[in-house]
TrEMBL record, chain A:
One of its GO terms (cellular component) is high-affinity iron permease complex. Belongs to the oxidase-dependent Fe transporter (OFeT) (TC 9.A.10.1) family. Its main location: membrane. Keywords: Membrane, Transmembrane, Transmembrane helix. It comes from the Bacteria. The chain crosses the membrane at residues 33-53, 68-87, 108-125, 145-167, 179-203, 247-264. This is Iron permease. It is found in: Membrane. The keyword Transit peptide does not apply. One of its GO terms (molecular function) is ferrous iron transmembrane transporter activity.
TrEMBL record, chain B:
It comes from Sulfuriferula multivorans. Pfam families: Cupredoxin_1 (PF13473). This is Cupredoxin domain-containing protein. The lineage of its organism: Bacteria, Pseudomonadati, Pseudomonadota, Betaproteobacteria, Nitrosomonadales. Residues 4-104 form the EfeO-type cupredoxin-like domain. InterPro entries: Cupredoxin, EfeO_Cupredoxin. Gene3D superfamilies: Cupredoxins - blue copper proteins. Coiled coil: none annotated.
Amino acid sequence: MIGSAVIVFRETLEAALLIGIIAAATRGLVGRNFWLAIGIGAGLVGSLIVAGLTEKIGELAEGTGQEIFNATILGIAVLMLGWHNIWMTTHGREMAAQAKSVGREVKTGQREMSALAILIALAVLREGSETALFLYSLAAGGGTSQVSLLSGGLLGLAGGIGVGWALYAGLARIPLRHFFTVTSALILFLAAGLAGQMARFLVQGDVISPLASPLWDSSSLLPMTSVLGNLLHLLAGYEARPSGMQVLFYGLTFIVILLGMRWSRTPTPQAI
Amino acid sequence: MKYLAFAFLLIPVISFGADLEMALVIKDHQFIPAELKVPAGKKVKLIVSNQDSTPEEFESHQLNREKVIAGNAKATIYVGPLSPGKYTFWGEFHDKTARGVIVAE
């Protein structure tokens, strides 16, 4: 039971942290909860479909279809997170400053939320399909009873959702003045980390060369198996033994989104 | 400076094929062979065939790899080029029995 709880927890956590950050960052947008629910629901349905198609997807591209598939999903997620951050630098501040005028922004807000629903669906789909495969694998193996498997899975799921919720609640307590700085910084690191993971899949599938493998090794300093290492991996894309290409993807994504945010920032209006 | 920038362009970004093919089998939630010797400094194309009916996830922090392999299916994982040393890997879905190590020398 503990085994299934731990794995389901780990898979859930990755999606739950992303949802927690997105939910916090879109606080005050009309229809936010509706779009979040749509995203999660679509992701759950999608994860079952992807889990069922694992073999087919894997056979594509001479046995590296899974890498291409994952890299594509991660690429879309990076684009959407980056775009969200740039969008927020122009719209977020004014929306927070004048909560009343949110109504004016409903149209653009809806477009923004529907795009984020896709992002959430993709995150849930990726982690959910692995969870479904794992549970199927255990259930079919016959080593564990169905009840212990199910209760372990539910325990892990609840734990992951709990941490995601705690992150959301913690972010929601940040004073408005600093709120957008904190959420955009989190999303910036998250997007760069996903870009790094995308590079890892492309290297694993031999689509691009690793450049240097590994570029450094900090596994004795901060192992991936430690709680801090794991958390930093999920939130900021930390890798103990990254390839040069991973670091390159990470750095480029980080810089491009940061520049986009700087350039799109509207000049602070002078006091009237 | 110009020459330096030009030299940088010569680093091959797109890779062409693997240097070496190696086979790994998953059976009864175990890796066969459990110890795989590979030459150091060469990229290896690892063909993992899962002979169990259940899916397995090949995972290794040291190799920086992670891949789900469906039941009764084959998958390709590229590793390396590795510097000499031992690299442990395991099956995430059955991590008590599915354990192995790649020895690069």
